[in-house]
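Re: beginner question about structure tokens

> Can someone show what the tokenized structure looks like for a real chain? I only ever see the sequence side.

Sure, here's an example I had lying around. Input first:
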Amino acid sequence: MGVRHPALATWRADLVATGTPTGDLADENLRLAESAEAPGPLSTALRVKALVAPREQRLPLLEHAVKVSDGTADRLAHAHALIALGSALRRAGHREAARDPLRTALSLTAPAGAHRAAALATAELHAAGARPRRPATHGPESLTTAEHQVAGLAASGLTNREIAARLILSRRTVETHLAHAYAKLGITSRHDLDAALVRRG
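And the corresponding structure tokens:
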């Protein structure tokens, strides 16, 4: 269709990631990502390139993938890069060095509800000899970023309509986030939010 931006046309990366032997596609995807100067797609392209690169090039590519996505808004791309780096380090025999990137990935994915990535990070941590704690399922620490933000605004006295306007969300989305927050905090009313967030935080 003529779309070449790697953030919009991900088929090249998808083909390589599924195991198709397409080194040329990985190279093309990386060139497009570098020219687009978009950290998330560039991190993904570097990670995909590492799948088909010679063994000695994999760790440098994955380290670069982690670096370019660090501190950016694309936290999921950063988490996937960390998981890939940790896995590669473990497979290369560096089990202790693998744990830090994997722990960081787990801390990014579990609270955000990225369950598949969190499960992969946890599995890799176990394979690296670590014993990660189970992600929290109750209390403020179990809230996603969005749930915590909505709950905090509700606790401050804003109505669902006001929260939706401030965060540029639909009212239904606000209601969903609040319902999830109530369940995780063990409360049934917005009047209990402030005390629950303070008492259990």
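Each token stands for a local structural state, so reading them left to right follows the chain. Residues 1-9 have pLDDT under 50 and may be disordered.
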